[in-house]
Design goal:
There is one protein chain. This protein has about 450 residues and is an alpha/beta fold. It has four domains: about 220 residues, Rossmann fold (3-Layer(aba) Sandwich), CATH 3.40.50.620; about 55 residues, no CATH class; about 80 residues, Orthogonal Bundle (Tyrosyl-Transfer RNA Synthetase), CATH 1.10.240.10; about 70 residues, Roll (Structural Genomics Hypothetical 15.5 Kd Protein In mrcA-pckA Intergenic Region, Chain A), CATH 3.10.290. The protein has 19 helices and 13 strands. The protein has a six-stranded mixed β-sheet with strand order 1-8-7-2-3-4, with helices on both faces. Strand 12 and strand 13 form a beta hairpin. Helix 14 runs parallel beside helix 16. The longest helix is centred in the middle third of the chain and has 21 residues.
Length: about 450
């Protein structure tokens, strides 16, 4: 990966950077000069309600990689505890709860994917779950009420067996399952008690919490606003304070512009605990392929970093021309000066938008799959669309589907029925033999070859 220079760290894709005393900049400069030997801790919080990472998330992760290249240590905070509350950011309705089993599965997927962008070397990367401090000893419950646990006696010559449901039994399991102890080597674990939450709330007014735009909008629309949602930014602020205690500091929190309120709450909580306040970096939010809404899986306008090279390349080629410079800025390592030249050339008509988009698609695929895969995807795209060649490995399905929507799902050419319906109604499904765009999801499919979107095909026998 290319390194981004120090100045670009504080400017490229950055909507706002809050560092009143320039303490963070000072540490970065001292680190670069070799005069600061402590860890510079960067926090990013992930609410693991969805299992995959798209290019919008990657804007943050690539900024973190740049900070790692400058010697910072990224702490990947998985909000498995707060995920059960759900961050109300941008939500007009209460978010449904997610089970611990789903959270754990999503956590594993997230950690598998971030290695495509971040260095996972221990000196520059760590991860921890906030259930590690929000879960208390008495919260532990055993499915089997008669379960027992053992621990060594004082002389370590014998073992003592106690009921797992007893306070001692719960405390033993608690001690053995804290990441602070098992993964980070701490002798004791930090725990956030209810009294600490109450103590924090004494310094935060109701007016401060409900000033958030999404809360005001919900109230004005007559919607309900629940107390557990209002507590979310407070708990996120406590996270920063706890991380500072565990890792020695929490120097910067990074997130999208929709997270600015929550991240500033971290500064408030750290200040009331007499800790150095974290700097806050809010990053621009990447628009989705529709060019209207922010990139989101639920809207079907996203590009996953786990997409196959051909799929990824084809999705980028469907991007509206107006977003080409922005995608170069937020989703690639192309130097800012070159991006400026590309934008001017597009505006003056000196270059064909398709050529710029092909370079964009090639660079993005190369980041996640390598140069060889990027060139192969470009060749496949050229042959398919410029030469109107249908791929040799088109999936064939039987003509036993009631509707075209059913056929698309059988051929696995859409993520969901909602996505399939959106593609059909947008005119993105073509029957190639008759060169007809089909816009009725309920239409019975005919035999022949279909193209779905730009890059997916299937054939009905």
């Amino acid at each position: 990966m290319k390194r981004i220079n120090t100045e670009e760290v504080f400017s490229r894709g950055v909507a706002s950077f809050i560092d009143p005393n320039e303490s963070f900049r000072t540490k970065i400069e001292a680190k670069a000069q070799g005069t600061y030997d402590k860890d510079i801790i960067i926090k990013i919080g992930i609410d693991p309600t969805r299992p995959d990472i798209h290019l919008g998330h990657a804007v943050l992760l690539r900024k973190l990689r740049a900070l790692q290249d400058l010697g910072c240590k990224v702490v990947f905070l998985i909000g498995d505890y707060t995920a059960q509350i759900g961050d109300p950011t941008g939500k007009s309705k209460v978010r449904p709860e997610i089970s611990q089993k789903e959270i754990e599965a999503n956590m594993k997927t997230y950690l598998d994917q971030v290695g495509k962008i971040l260095s996972l070397e221990p000196q520059v990367f760590s991860w921890i779950c906030n259930s590690d401090w929000f879960t208390n000893v008495t919260d532990i419950e055993f499915a089997q009420k008669d379960a027992t646990v053992t621990f060594d006696s004082n002389d370590k010559k014998s073992h003592i067996e106690v009921s797992a449901s007893s306070f001692i039994g719960k405390a033993i399991l608690f001690d053995k399952t804290r990441m602070q102890i098992t993964a980070l080597g701490k002798t004791t674990a930090h725990v956030v008690s209810f009294s600490r939450v109450l103590s924090t709330l004494r310094h935060i007014t109701h007016a401060r919490l409900i000033e958030r735009d999404m809360f005001q909008e919900r109230i004005n629309n007559g919607g309900e606003l629940y107390m557990h949602e209002m507590l979310y930014p407070v708990l996120q602020g406590i996270d920063s304070s706890v991380l500072a205690s565990i890792y020695g500091s929490c120097d910067l929190e990074i997130g999208g512009t929709d997270q600015t309120f929550n991240m500033l709450m971290g500064r408030d909580v750290m200040k009331m605990n007499n800790q150095p306040e974290q700097a806050v970096m809010s990053m621009d939010i990447l628009e989705g392929l529709d060019g209207k809404e922010k990139m989101s899986k639920s809207l079907g306008n996203y590009v996953s970093i786990a997409d196959e090279p051909n799929d990824m390349y084809g999705k980028i080629m469907s991007l509206p021309d107006a977003l080409i410079p922005r995608y170069f800025l937020l989703a690639t390592y192309t130097p800012s000066e070159e991006i400026g030249d590309i934008e001017k050339s597009l505006q003056s008509g000196k270059i064909n938008p398709r050529d710029s988009k092909m370079r964009l698609a090639r660079e993005i695929v190369a980041i996640y799959h390598g140069e060889a895969a990027a060139k192969s995807a470009e060749t496949a795209f050229f042959e398919t669309f410029s030469q109107k060649k249908i791929p040799d490995d088109v999936l064939e399905i039987e003509n036993n589907n009631a509707t075209l929507l059913d056929a698309i799902m059988s051929a696995e050419c859409a993520e969901s029925r909602t996505d399939a319906r959106r593609l059909i109604e947008a005119g993105a499904v073509t029957h190639l033999e008759s060169d007809t765009k089909i816009k009725d999801p309920t239409q019975k499919p005919e035999s022949g070859t279909y193209r779905v979107g730009k890059i997916r095909f299937f054939r009905i026998k």
